Amino acid sequence: MTLDHVGIATDDAAELAVFYEDLVGYEVVHEEDFDGLQVVFVDTGNTYLELLEPLDDDSTIARFLDQNGPGLHHVAFEVEDCEAALATARELDVGLVDEEPRPGAWGHTVAFLHPRDTGGVLTEFVEH
Length: 128
Ligand code: CO
Hints:
By secondary structure, the chain is α+β, with helices and mostly antiparallel strands. The chain is about 25% helix and about 40% strand.
């Protein structure tokens, strides 16, 4: 299993993507409007950056930006079976943000774990 992506909250995903391209040559490989967000995936070679820009004030990313400003939002681990990964998390008494897998960006199946039980970092499972 690999680190699937690192999620970064930003006020301007397009501008941040250009910055990464200028800085280290990373290129955008996927963009979509998803769930009130502009989501931009940048390919780093062995993982992705997921740039998350709120398109409305109600999204969790808009609230995150209000409270914390732009920056690291979550890390995402690739799993073969999201349902099985959630069962393992339950066995380990990890609090679940999502009790069941749900549709995520880029057509993936995802579920989030509570940061209080994951070293203070919001953690996502991603099944491709
Ligand atoms: Co993510």
